[in-house]
Write a structure and sequence with these properties.
The complex is a heterodimer of chains A (113) and B (118). Chain A is mainly beta and 113 residues long. Helix content of chain A is 0%, strand content 51%. The chains are: A mainly beta (113), B mainly beta (118).
Chain lengths: 113, 118
């Protein structure tokens, strides 16, 4: 079955360490997105990519980085510059333009101690 | 710029009672509208969407939403809820693709937690 796989589901890291969250899709979707979810704040866009080797900053890109070397993969690195990284991270994908909405992964819960 | 407002952060309701989750949007151009549902510790699942045509759209599990352009609303309703409907519901909006082929991104509301009890 086609879908989006995020791994790991839970991630614990020490403060000051970089950490990379994985997102892989086999839907042949062109566009991929990373969102951060905090209680009471809904979803906030971190980065998005509409084609391979191209990506744009979203609303809260500071302290994060991404790459899009393959159509299927869009990893997110949470760097030590992100002041409050503990959150639930969601990856999504869509056909170009997203006319039919996004397909979401099951999320990664990152806890920084 | 587009935005979405979900005024109710939590909606408690008894099983088999009707429910309405409110969503209002602002946009200077035409819009596509979506409702997503999120169960605990999971991703979002598309519940229903309005792209064009009939303003009343329905999901397979009994939810429906009506696009009201004059009131810029897309409220979600269900005539009789079940315990299994307990979840968080997100309304989202985006502008259709422009002449250049580019498209704006989905903008989400802050979510409404529907709590169904016996």
């Amino acid at each position: 079955d086609g879908g989006i796989t995020q791994s790991p589901k839970y991630l614990f890291r020490k403060e000051g360490q970089n950490v990379t969250l994985s997102c892989e899709q086999n839907l042949n979707h062109d566009a991929m997105y990373w969102y951060r979810q905090d209680p009471g704040q809904g979803l906030r866009l971190i980065y998005y990519s509409q084609i391979v080797n191209d990506f744009q900053k979203g609303d809260i890109a500071e302290g994060y980085s991404v790459s899009r070397e393959k159509k299927e993969s869009f990893p997110l690195t949470v760097t030590s510059a992100q002041k409050n990284p503990t959150a639930f991270y969601l990856c999504a994908s869509s056909i170009y333009g997203g006319d039919y909405g996004y397909t979401f992964g099951s999320g990664t819960r990152l806890t920084v101690v | 710029a587009q935005s979405v407002t979900q005024l109710d952060s939590q909606v408690p309701v008894f099983e088999e009672a009707p429910v309405e989750l409110r969503c209002n949007y602002s946009s200077s151009v035409s819009v596509y509208l979506f409702w997503y549902v999120q169960y605990p510790n999971q991703g979002l699942q598309l519940l229903l969407k309005y792209l064009s045509g009939s303003t009343l759209v329905k999901s397979i599990n009994g939810f429906e939403a009506e696009f009201n352009k004059s009131q810029t609303s897309f409220h979600l309703r269900k005539p009789s809820v079940h315990i299994s409907d307990t979840a968080e519901y997100f309304c989202a909006v985006r502008n259709p693709r422009g002449n250049t082929g580019t498209a704006s991104k989905l903008t989400f509301g802050t979510g409404t937690r529907l709590q169904v009890t016996l």
